[in-house]
Amino acid sequence: MSGKQVKQLDRVVIRFAGDSGDGMQLTGARFTSDTALLGNDLSTLPNFPAEIRAPQGTLPGVSSFQLHFADHDVLTPGDAPDVLVAMNPAALKANLRDLPRGATVIVDTDEFSKRNLAKVGYAANPLEDGSLESFHVHALGLTSITVAALVDLDLTRKEKERAKNMFALGLLSWMYHRPTDGTESFLHAKFGRSPELLAANLTALHAGWNYGETTEDFAVSYEVAPAPMPSGLYRNITGNTALAYGLVVGARRAGRPLVLGSYPITPASDVLHTLSGLKRFGVTTMQCEDEIAGVGAALGASFGGAVGVTTTSGPGVALKSETIGLAVSLELPLVVCDIQRGGPSTGLPTKTEQSDLLQAMFGRNGEAPVAVVAPCSPADNFTMALEAVRIATTYRTPVLLLSDGYLANGSEPWRIPALADLPEMHVQLATEPNTITGDGVPAFQPYLRDPQTLARPWAVPGTPDLEHRIGGIEKADGTGNISYDPDNHDRMVHLRQAKIDGIAASIGDLEVDDPTGDADVLVLGWGSTYGPITAAVRAVRARGGTVARAHLRHLNPFPANTEKVLRGYRTVLVPEMNLGQLGLLLRAKFLVDVTGYNQVRGLPFSTSELIEAISTAIAASQPAATDSVAPVAPEQEAS
Amino acid sequence: MTTQAIGHTHGLAQVPLLEPGEPKQTKKDFTSDQEVRWCPGCGDYAVLATMQGFLPELGLKRENIVFISGIGCSSRFPYYMNTYGVHSIHGRAPAIATGLAVSRPDLSIWVITGDGDALSIGGNHLIHALRRNVNLKILLFNNRIYGLTKGQYSPTSEVGKVTKSTPLGSVDTPFNPVSLALGAEASFVARTLDSDRKHLSEVLRRAAEHRGTALVEIYQNCPIFNDGAFAVLKDPEQAPMRLLRLTDGEPITAGTDAEESVVVRTDAGSLEVVPRAEADPSRIIRHDPHATDPSQQFAIARLDGPSMAHVPVGIFRDVARPTYDDLVRAQVDDAVSSGGGTPTDDDIAALLAGPDTWTVSDRGAVGEHQTARA
Predict the structure, then answer these.
(1) Would strands B214-219 and B188-193 be described as parallel, antiparallel, or unpaired?
(2) Taking all residues of chain B, what is their mean pLDDT, rounded to a whole number?
(3) For residue A289, what is the DSSP state?
(4) Beta bridge partners of A233
(5) Would you tell me which residues 479-538 of chain A have a C-beta closer than 8 angstroms to some C-beta of chain B?
(6) Which of the four pLDDT bands, split at 50, 70 and 90, describes residue B355?
(7) A182, A204, A378, A637: which one has the fewest Cβ atoms less than 10 Å from its Cβ?
(8) In Å, how far is B240's CA from the nearest CA of chain A?
(9) Which helix (H) or strand (E) holds A525?
(10) Residues of chain A with C-beta less than 8 angstroms from the C-beta of B336
(11) Three-class SS of residue A286?
C-alpha cells in the first residue's frame, strides 16, 4: 500500500452520520458485512429518526450507524466513536458531544455552506473557528470529489451526488483494510438493471478507496486482526432476521405450518418483510387491516393446526390484548413477538426500551397468564424464537417474545447452527376420542389435560369424531362446555396458572457467572442489556472488582432456581431500560430486595455508566469501604 | 388449483364430501348436546333450525365445517352446532376466520355475527373481509338492537330510536348492511328473513356455492328489546306488498297480480317502485346479480327506507372474483414448487447461511470467505 504507515489496533468504533436521505444505514450495514467477513467480532447500533425524510440538513433529520469491531469478543456497539463520518453540519453537531478527545472526524466540506450552518445554529463554521482542535479532522469535498469521479457517466448531478455514501465507504474501507468485494456483489444485485447507477456506485466506492491510498491527508491506515471465535460457519445477522429465521425453523421442528398475521409497525416491520419473502419455505404471511386482525388471523390459523404468529411493538400489543386473552382461554399455541420501543403511546418509534415487560405479563383482563421469553442479543433472537414456538406448541399457550429496537436492528456475527443440533419438539395433534362416557361411548373432551404439561389436546377441524366448540366464556374443566359454576371457574383459573408455572420444569436453571464464587453483588439483567452488562462486569473485574452476573431469558415463568440465586447475594443490581419492571416482579415474587439501575433515553446502556453503577453497588454492599474498585463521583450515579 | 381457476370454482370445491355409502346426514347430526339458551320467541331459533336442517343437503363431512362467531346473542350459535366452532371476541370473528380460511382450504367456514358485532365494533374486519373476498359465509343477524347488553340502540337502529342509552332518541344515521357490503367490494350479498325458512335455505345454498365472501343479512326479531321490528315484513297481508323479491333475470316486483308494484328506472337514472299498471314497460328493469358493475345492485339496495314500504330481499350480487385465500395459497404453492418442492434441511441451511459467510477453523483463524453473487 504505497508505503503508507499501517498501524495495528485491537478495536475501533466508527459512526457514520448524515441526513436521513444520505444512505448512512446502508453504508453502515455494508461496512459491517465487509467487517464480518474479515473475521472481526462486532456489534452495531443503527440510530435513525422516525420521520422518513425530515427536513434536509436539520438536526432531527440526522441518521447514524455505529459499528464496534475488534480482534476480541465484542459485547456492545461501543460507548464513544473513535471515528465520526459526518456528511453535513447537522450530523457533526448532533454527534460531536459523543466524541472523545483525539477522535477522528471526517466531514464533507461541500455541505458546510452558510445556509446549512445556519440551519443547525452554527454562528461560525466549526471547521474554521478552531472548535474542533481537539479532534483529528479530515475535511474534504466528499460530494464534489464524488461528482468529479463520475464525470463520464450519463447521470444528473443529483444522481451522482447520491453516490457519495459509497465514496465514504470506499475511503473507510481503505483506512481499515476492509475488503470491498462483498459490497461490489451487493451493488451488482441492487443496481443490476440500471448499468449507469451501478457504474456510479462502483466508481464512487473505488474512488473513495483510491482517495485514501493516494492523498497526503490520509497518512495512516489501520488493521484489526480477526477475533478468535469458536470454529464453525459464521454470518452476520440482525435481530429481526434472526427472529424470522427462528420462527421458520421452529415451526419446521414442530412439524406445523407457519402462519403470520401482522400489521406494519416500527421496529417490527422487518420481521413481516423477511417472512413475506420466505414463501418458498411454505411460510404464509398476511398483512392484515389492523393489529387486532393480525393476531386474530394468527389465532384462527392456530385453531386450524398452524403455528400462528403475530409481530408487533408495544402499541400493537395493547391492541392485541383481548385476543391474547382469548388465546389464553382457548389454550391454543400463539407466538406474539413484541419488538419493544420507547413508550408510552407512540413514544419513540425508532428508539429502544424495555418497558413492555409488565404489559406482557399483565396487560390483559382477568387472570390471563402467558409465557414470556426475551432474547439477549441479535442472534439470540433465533434461539428464543425456537423456544417460543416450543413452549407455545407444547403447552398450547400464547408466548410473548420481547425483543427491542436495539436487538432488532443491531447485528452481530452468528455461528450458524446445524439443524440436527437444535432442540426436538414433539407436537401431537389429537386424532381420537380421549374418554368414555358413562354409557360406554367414546367421547372427546377438549379440556382434558395432559397430566405432565397440563396442556389440552390440540384437535383441529377436519378430524372426525372430535368436533367441539370452544370460546372465551369460562369452560367446564374437561368437557369445555360453558360453565358459570363458581368452583369450576376457581379451578380453571388455577389450572391455567399452574400450566404456565409448570413450564419452568422444561427450561434450564439460571446460570450465574461468578468466577471467584465470593461476590457480594449480583448484576441481573434481561433482554438486550446482556451486552453492556457483560462488558461492564468484565471491566470491573479487570480493575480488581468482584461481581457476579446472570441474565434472564425466561421471564415467565422464571427459571426454577431464580430465588435461590437471588438469595445468594448481598446486593442484586438490576439494570433495565425502564423504571424497574423486572425489579418489581422479583420483589413481588420472591420478597428479595433488588437495586434498580434505570435509564430510558431510547439508547442502550453505555458500558461506562454500568461500570459506575456496579462499582457503586459493590462499594455500598461492603460496609467497611474498600479500595478494590475505583471510586465513583456521586453526581455520575444515575437514577 | 391453477391460477386460472381461482374465483371460478365452487365455494366448497376443496371440502371433502361424505364417502359413498356413508349414512345420509339429518338435522340431528348437526344438533349439539347443549341446551339452547335464547329467549323464548327469539328469531335465532328459526335460523338455527334452518341451518341444522339445511346442512345435510351439502353432504359435507361434518368435521370439515366450522362456525366462528363474535359476541352477542346470535354469537352463541356455534355452541348449538355439532361441528367445530369458536365463540370468539366482540367484532373479531371475520379476522379469526380469515386466518383459518387461508390456512385450511378444506373447511366450510361460517361466520355468525350481529348488527353490533359486525357493523359497530367489528366494522373494520367486515369491510376488509369483503374487499379481500375470503372464502367465508358471513351471516349477519340484524335485529337493530343490542340484545345481550339489554337494549341499547345499534348501528342499524332507525333514527330517533328510544333506548336506555338514548332516552331522547338516537340521532345517528343507520347503516344499510347491504349497500355497505356492496360499497366494500363484496362479491356476494343477500338479504333474507329469519321466519322464511324456504327463502333462508335457498340463500344459504347459494352462499355456500359461492367462492368468496358471502354476506347474508338476516332480518331477525328480538322479542325482548325490539319486538316487531320487522313485523310489517312478516304480516301475511302486508308482507307481499312490501317485499321486493329479487329473482335472477326477472323484473323486481311486489304485491299480488291485482295490485302489483314494479321497479323502474326514472328519467334521472335512479330506481323507483311504481304500480305495475302505471309502469312504462321499457323502463322496467331486470335484476342481474351477476353484473360486474354494481351500480344497479346498489340502487336496488337503496330502495328501502325507514318506513319499510318496499324492502328488497334475495340475492343482490353474486359475481365471481378471485378469493384472497386462494391467491395467498397460490403464491406459496408457486414459490415452493418453483423453489424445487418441499424445502429440505439443506434448503433451510442455505437460508440460514445467506449469501455472505465465513469459516472459523479449529485454530481460530478465519478461513475462506464465501460471497455469493445474487
Answers:
(1) parallel
(2) 94
(3) S
(4) B359
(5) 481-482
(6) confident
(7) A637
(8) 39
(9) strand A521-526
(10) 279-282
(11) strand
Of chain A, the percentage scoring pLDDT greater than 70 comes to 97
How much is the pLDDT for A632? 46
CA dist A375 and A527 (Å) reads 5
Predicted confidence at residue A51, as pLDDT, reads 84
Asked if the Cβ–Cβ distance from A465 to B354 is below 8 Å, we say no
Distance CA A299, CA A530 (A): 32
List, edge to edge, every strand of the sheet that includes A136-140: A41-47, A62-70, A11-19, A83-86, A104-108, A136-140
B332 contacts chain A (CB < 8 A) = yes
Residue pairs between chains A and B whose CB atoms are closer than 8 Å: 231
DSSP A129-188: SSTTTTSEEEEE-HHHHHHHHTTTS---HHHHHTTHHHHHHHHHHHHTT---HHHHHHHH
For residue A265, which of A317, A335, A326 has the smallest C-alpha distance? A317
CA distances from residue A327 to A78, A175, A280, A297, A369 in whole angstroms, order as listed: 41, 54, 29, 12, 11
Distance CA B327, CA B321 (A): 11
Most B CBs within 10 Å, among A30, A469, A479, to test the B interface: A469
Looking at chain A, the number of H-run helices and the number of E-run strands are: 20, 25
Answer positive or negative: Cα dihedral of A238, A240, A246, A249: negative
Q: Which residue of A has its CA nearest to B372?
A: A185
Which chain B residues are within 8 Å of A284, Cβ to Cβ?
A: 102-103, 328-329, 332
Give the span between the Cα atoms of B373 and A34, in whole angstroms: 14
Q: How confident is the model at residue B370 (pLDDT cuts 50, 70, 90)?
A: low
Backbone φ and ψ for A177, nearest 5 degrees, come out as 55, 40
Q: Which pLDDT does position A624 carry in this prediction? A: 60
Q: Has residue B3 got a pLDDT over 60?
A: no
The B residues from 52 to 91 touching A (CB cutoff 8 Å) are: 61-68, 71, 78-79, 81-89
Chain B residues inside the 8 Å CB shell of A280: 335-336, 338-339, 343, 347
Q: Give me the residue label for grid cell 468482584.
A: A546
**Mean of pLDDT over chain A:** 94
Nearest Cα to Cα of residue A319 among A274, A288, A348: A288
The pLDDT tens digits for A27-79 are: 999 999 999 988 999 999 999 888 887 888 999 999 999 999 999 999 999 99
What is the mean predicted confidence (pLDDT) over B248-260? 94
Task: Tell me the pTM.
Answer: 0.93
Q: Is A203 on the interface with B (CB under 8 A)?
A: no
**Interface test with chain B among A303, A331, A421, A483, by most B beta carbons within 10 Å:** A303
Q: B138: which 3 cell numbers?
A: 358471513
Contacts of B9 (CB under 8 A, 6+ apart): B1, B211
Q: Are A306 and A258 in contact (CB under 8 A)?
A: yes
Give the ipTM of the model, two decimals please.
0.96
Give dist(CA A545, CA A326) in Å, integer. Answer: 49
B125 CB-near residues (< 8 Å, 6+ apart): A289, A292, A293, A296, B91, B92, B93, B94, B95, B98
Contact A323, A363 (CB under 8 A): no
Rounded to whole angstroms, the Cα distance separating B94 from B112 reads: 9
Residues of A in contact with B68 (CB under 8 A): 300
Nearest Cα to A482, choosing from B224, B141, B147, B80?
Answer: B80
Q: What is the pLDDT of residue B257?
A: 85
**Tens of pLDDT, residues A401-457:** 999 999 999 999 999 999 999 988 989 999 999 999 889 999 999 999 999 999 999
Contact criterion met (CB < 8 Å) for B364 and A301: no
Contact between B125 and A189 using a beta-carbon 8 Å cutoff: no
In angstroms, the separation between the Cα of residue B335 and the nearest Cα of chain A is: 4
* pLDDT above 60: residue A627: no
